[in-house]
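Standup notes
- DV: blocked on the single-chain target, sequence here:
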Amino acid sequence: MSRVDAFVLAVLSRKNKLSLSQIVEEVREINLTKPPSRIGIYKRLNNVLGNQNLVKFEWKQGEKVYIISEEGREVISEFINQLIGISA
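- DV (later): unblocked, structure below
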């Protein structure tokens, strides 16, 4: 899982049903030294996370909103548990 994937899944696990703009804003608030670009996040959402069934989308008032799937929740939960294990 890439760094961008982890951040996007973490953001969606906290606040589900977000537009691309909202996801980009949330990821940028993490204060990374090199934040991913909007197009980078878009590509990860649609070409990687979507193809792996970790995120889904729906249309809400003409805007595409992204939703973390149950599989996505399991993946980010496992990832967080591994990080906690490393730091312990």
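- Follow-up: The chain has a mean pLDDT of 91.
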